[in-house]
Fold these 2 entries.
Entry 1:
Amino acid sequence: MSDPTRHEGTPESEGTPHPAGHGDTGADHLERVATTDAARELPPEQAGFGEGVIGEVLLDIQHLSKSFGPVHANRDITINVRRGEIVALLGENGAGKSTLVNQIFGLITPDTGTVSVKGDSTPIKDPKDAIHRGIGMVHQHFQLVPVMTVAENLMLGHETTKGGIVLDIEGARTMVRELSQRHGLAVDPDVEVDDLPVGTQQRVEILKALSRRVDLLILDEPTAVLTPQETDELLGVMKELAASGTSIVFITHKLREVLAVSDRVYVLRQGAVVGEVATKDTDATGLATMMVGREVVLSIEKDAATPKETVLSIHDLMVKDDRDLTAVDGFSLEVRAGEIVGVAGVEGNGQRELVEALAGMRKVASGQMTLGELDLTRANPHETHHAGVGHIPEDREKHGLVSAYSIADNLVLNEFDQAPYAKSGVRQFSVVRENAENLREEFDIRSSGVMQTAGSLSGGNKQKVVVAREMSFEPKLLMAAQPTRGVDVGSIEFIHRRIVEARDKGAAVLLVSAELDEILSLSDRIAVVHGGKVVAEMDGKDADRTEIGRLMAGDH
Amino acid sequence: MSDTTTEKAAPPPSGEEPPEEQQSRGGALAYLIAHQSAVVIVVALVIALLIGAVLIRLQGVNPWYAYETLIREALVYPGAFTRTLQKTAPLVLTGLAVVLPLRVGLFNIGGQGQFVAGAIMGAWVAYLTSGAGILGALLGMLAGIVFGGAVGALVGVLKAYRGVHEVISTIMLNYIVAGVTFWLVVGPLQAERSKTSGIPQTEAIPESARIGSIAGVPVGFIIAVGLAVLCWWMLSRTTMGFRFNTVGANKSAAGYAGIPINRVIVMSLAFGAGLAGLGGALEAEGTLHRFEPAIVGSLGFDGITIALLARANPIATLPAAFLVGILRTGAAGLQFSTGIAPEIVDLLLALILLMVSIPVLGKWIFRSRADKVSVASTSWGS
Amino acid sequence: MTWVTKNRTTLVILAAVVVAAYVFYYAANDIAPSMFVAAWGYAIPLVLASLVGVIGERSGVVNIGIEGQMLIAAFAGFFAAAYSGSLLVGVLSGVGSGLIAGGFLAWTTVRWRMDQIIAGVVLNIVATGITSFYYTPGQILPSLIPNLDIPLLQDIPLVGEVFFSGRSWIASFAIVAAVGVHLLLFHTRWGLRTRAVGEYPSAADTAGVNVERLRLVNVTLAGSLAGLAGVYLSMDASSTFERGMTAGRGFLALAIMIMGAWRPLRAFAMALFFGFVNAVASQLQQSGLGVSGEPSGFLEWTLAAITSPQILATLPYVAVLVLLGLAAGRVRPPGAVGQPYVKGDQ
């Protein structure tokens, strides 16, 4: 009986193999991956890692360097990965981790040095080559075509065809279902990717990588968009894969995850490897110190809050997203002057739409928002700003800054037409410049001058520009959405301190963040959001990590 | 789906040394382009003229003689310089008509139609109000701005509120305006003598409402220069200009900053088209003293070339328009002396534009540091 | 079948249109047939040109230069045929110049990352420059492109008369091309990769597809269709070349592409629609509607205006504005159109 779906015949299409003993897929398989301790209980011969077991060297990188102009993204990096190992690449934002793995996957070519895969040191030309050599990658920003179905996305690049030309969708569907079962990641092949929740999209992304033969799987910040429970699940999957012979290289800046699942850690700082350690030989403080190069205070010190009158009042707010679906669904919250309210939640639960609506950038479907006496519900950004609302937007490249403009111009982006920066419609450049010099000093913006184009600053400094701008006019309400995303640790500390300072000066602060640590460290009060509404409110001191995690996942 | 940025994030920094300083006063991408590629433009010009020389040689004519004739016809012979200036004036305006919206990220290629709308209404109003002398001329100019601007405003409204891409709508309006004005000029606005001669035209504008020259310099040219400077000043020194540039540089950030994007879109197109309309009115009042369908020639399309040559810098439209003016004025004489068809100028201009837009420049300019996304195309999908 | 239920609305609209067409055909038998024939004739180059746009934009590349491509091809085809005495040489020259122009567009925008709209505008200006200058009047074609009457199909009332008789093979090819591009785009490997490259190129890149190469190939080859459209204009629909003879068809084709939601078969339908609008305008012009004598009063003037030949001729262009205005927000272009792709973009 001939197979109606003729594959293209390459070994890639067979998918990642798994050894005998892991073929069971069923209810208890799921139970096993749900707890991160599961893999530790595997006997050593199935584990592929552990004390005394040395697997073959899968990936050997020697003296790798890569520069972009004057920026040395990777400097003389030497690392290796053995079969069955989980190796973590730890470092703060901008340390060079993504650049490194992009070279392993063939997206960038190294300047000097070699990357050897299974002993073969031929340079990796492009992703196709990398895939062919057994490397797979799960990207931080999912590489999925939104309007195409799961099946179409999974077969892209190695399509199942009839007669070599005509697409065989049915064959693709079958492949998806098989893969789904084999690795215990359930997905529906016929759904359009952009209709899927983020956690499921990541499953698709992982399956995509696993649909080819993968000896080494790279995961780039995989838990950024997951709830704590989903994170645990993912970590479990990673251990499964390692146990079945697929090595994992895993980029993260989250110490917790490194300690939970990796065998070895390489710490990167400013483009170079500054430490290599077996996970069992280190702890959070040790890792953090290596990451930053100095003693790091992992949480910020602040005085107790003395909240005053209610500044922001949100009542039963309903806001639609870009696809006209309800994103904010009956959201109610109050923020008082002199307090920081942290909105905790996994991305995709309406936070972005909420903040945009509050800033006047998005239309409100129903409900009300008031700032003191002022009704903000129908206000536009100009009006909200002048009412005293500062907004640190989630996407600084898109909303927060004009990359082509100078730092000085960016610092007056909201006020360019107000006195003293303009007089009767004519801009007063000297005043703008002076303001910029002051702010640059006050907020420690590292640049060669205030006339430098904002686009050439580092992530942290870009964010400092935005923060400087939004805090310098002493807002009544400060909204900070993901304020330290993509920012180096030094700048994170700085920004956190400034936020607390703003609070101490009497501002009401609304902090929206997907980083639970940030919320826990800064907030006086915490509101957990799920499905577009507040599902729980609590005092900062009473907050329990696990509890919040549950609530974030919708378990309430 | 996690938000994917289409702009390349700045490469990971070393943390210690910040990258070199880049002066960017007023900051718009287009301004940056204009400032830094003057040398490259001259090189491109030279290359284009060399290619043109080869083509002229193939016609059996000595290219250096041809170029010399062009220059002489345009600048040296008595009255030539004035004629060249007269030709340059409307070109500056049609060039500005493209430049202004370009700074907002919009592509106004409807200069032809906007010019014609301004020309016919300018001619008509000047004719009607010629009793008031110079005031008639001014009213005519105003009519030109208003009617040309109306066409632009329509394009802007369709773009801002209905998402109709301006490249398509401006071209459609070119044809629509051509049709309407043609009907007008053989219908209600037809001159008496035109009904017998068969040449479609409107009544002649009497002397009193015409525009002449001051000390040999055509008034239209003076107005055009003034407007070019005004546009430059507006874009680089005023808050209105800041709004224009910001919408062009980063629409989302402009929205965040509270800039009324839709209004900016409509305004930029209305202003730009108004300038083209003014060019038409000036041409009708100053050069032709009436309206004929052929008044526009290729002025609208030349405006596109000029704007691209000027790299969206209003002041640079002056030399660019002057260059085109020289070529166009010299062309008639060229044909007389060498037999080469005046269309050679179309070809030369096309070559110049090609050389200026192409490779090295394209790569260098449009892949500038932080913004790799080019200006005009971002408006297509939105 | 599920296919029928999924495409309910389209089928209903299609059925309604077909019925209306036939009713008109029989009811107004004196003018209808010639109108339909004229409509198809006008639509043929639009079909080909809009396919150029569809292929390009589905790959992520905006092509504003279709107008220039057609003009150059019309020029090259006509004069090559006239000078060489061979129709075949003419056709090949026309199609070839479309290819070359497409290649120019592809290389400058994809390889050199030039702004796509500017590249298109430059192409148009260059095409105008070249064809204006090298134009020589008085040339004639050696012969006309032969007709292709398809035996059985040509006897079908209305449809057969219009599509399958009295037309050259270019016309038939246009139909085949529309269907072909549809099948290729939605049912082949090439189509899936092309659409991925136009929607979200980095996903294609990381899956092993060579984004740049695919875009280069697609835009260049699509140029051949523009070339054929140009050849049709100067060697089939008319047997002469006039300066500027494309008369905005390249831009009409873009409008058609948009209204057809970047789908080949819908673009085909929209092209037919535009052909019909044009035929209606011509018919109205001929039938001498209008006000006799000098009109008086605003109303009469307006009526005289609308029924005048000059303003009736603007009907297709007005229709574009109205329809595009209505289509706002209802059609969505491919996600990555207009953006050059830089590797490592995520």
Entry 2:
Amino acid sequence: MGPQSSRVVELRIPSELGYEKIAREAVATVAHRLNFSEEKIEDIKTAISEACTNAIRYGSGSDARMKVVVILTADENKLDILIKDPGASGAPPIDINIPDISGMVEGKHRLGGMGLYIIRELVDEAGFVEASDEDEGNQFRMVIYRVGDHEETNTTDASKKDKGGAK
Amino acid sequence: MSEEIQVSVRDEGPATVIDLIGDVTTFAEEAINQAYQSASADGAVNIVFNFRENDYINSAGIAILIGVVTEARKRDQKLLMTGLSAHFQKIFRMVGLTQYADLYPSVEEALASLNGETNR
């Protein structure tokens, strides 16, 4: 991958738990080529696993006849990941809550609901984006910069991560 | 697609060690819970969950472990976790799991911590 160039890798995986591992391996390969640090590659692998798992479980009801589409767009500075699902469960959540583990342990809250929080903590930008007219379903976008300190981008689609959040 | 997890239980001095080899995802729920229940039925007080570094753990797997934490608190058991990569140590801290289970690099170090407590 030379300077100033961008490369796009597109995957279509069956909506069945376990197939998120293909996206996980693919993104690791792309991130290695971009010379991301090992720590950041592990973060990206976990983030894409969680996002694909959400798309499989909630976005397409674990119906293997459906597909989850993963589009990895890499350039010299960043990796942009878009995950599309059929939107089987309707509108995606608006808020990303900090998991209340003590509430789970005390039986006040159901176990789970941690995926989006983990993603938000691991990547630079993350959020659901509005699908274009020809696309139906949900689209979740994540951006990871190769260098931690980057200039603010003008994106309005993806919610900016709270830089003051726990890491 | 998911690597089936292999779970085994062994006694190691002051603790019962549950070795986990493979993916810690929703597919591991039955195996992990069975191992934990087996250890508890044998009277385990200190339980070490020994992960294989770099295995795949996702939030569904973490939720299974939180379920174990819930049961362990009811039984007044101590949970320890070993073998996690630096990345998953970070994730476990991030979600707050380390409030309920101490992390150690290895089983040996976890057991040493328990022996130290016993000698005190």
